[in-house]
Amino acid sequence: MGRIIAIANQKGGVGKTTTSINLSASLAELGKKVLTIDMDPQGNTTSGLGIDKNQVENTVYELLLEEVSTDECIYTSVMEGLDVIASNINLSGAEVELISIENKEFLLKEKINLLRDNYDYIVIDCPPSLNLLTINAMTTSDTVLVPIQCEYYALEGLSQLIHTIELIKERLNPDLEIEGVVFTMFDGRTNLSLQVVENVKENLNRNIYKTIIPRNVRLAEAPSYGMPINMYDTRSSGAEAYRLLAEEVIQYQMNK
Ligand SMILES: Nc1ncnc2c1ncn2[C@@H]1O[C@H](COP(=O)(O)OP(=O)(O)OP(=O)(O)O)[C@@H](O)[C@H]1O
Ligand SMILES: [Mg+2]
User: Residues in domain AAA (predicted)?
Assistant: First the structure.
């Protein structure tokens, strides 16, 4: 049975989408069958994997709120072995529409359970908020992976995120675990990045991935070409890092 990983942090711009795209693509490169679900109305994971978000007919919105089957929502990405359930701006209205629906926290889970067996990994990119879309992602998932940007306010909001995850575990998804945190946008030339890593390690009693994602301009460029980093520049430091992260993610499961 496949493992479902939510990439979440309500803080904006910390590298959730970059991690979703490139962890998914690196897992696929290692021969895994992967599905990436874009739960963010910004649709950046969708376009970053080579899918025109304004042309897709069925998105997460249709999956959650209309009588559309899961199969009809799955698109193939530019990367072999990597499928996508897309998103676009239409999803921004879903939050309000979801409120009055029964079982509103479990709509995604009901749909995704049907195809768990078709994939080794399902990676869900969450929006930068602890809203119903994020809650749906967390009730569907086995684990949450939290990207932390190496900047001064890295720890801000982290305790709130951990508290939310624990509440969801208590009330909605008893199996949910925090898989770990991964540092992103590390800049080895500054003391700040090093200090942030040390500070978070001291304050956070959680699994921290050994792999640290460096700040690498190729990672920022790749989405505008609709490609994950391993296709855009396979030898870049960003591609190497996400490959190592994918190996660690696979290892985590084997250690269970
Ligand atoms: N390791 C990196 N090196 C250089 N640039 C990066 C790196 N990771 C992310 N970026 C850039 O930083 C910006 C924010 O990254 P990203 O979109 O992945 O964050 P996010 O957490 O998904 O943001 P949001 O909260 O808006 O969804 C993007 O422009 C992205 O290209
Ligand atoms: Mg994002």
Answer: 3-178
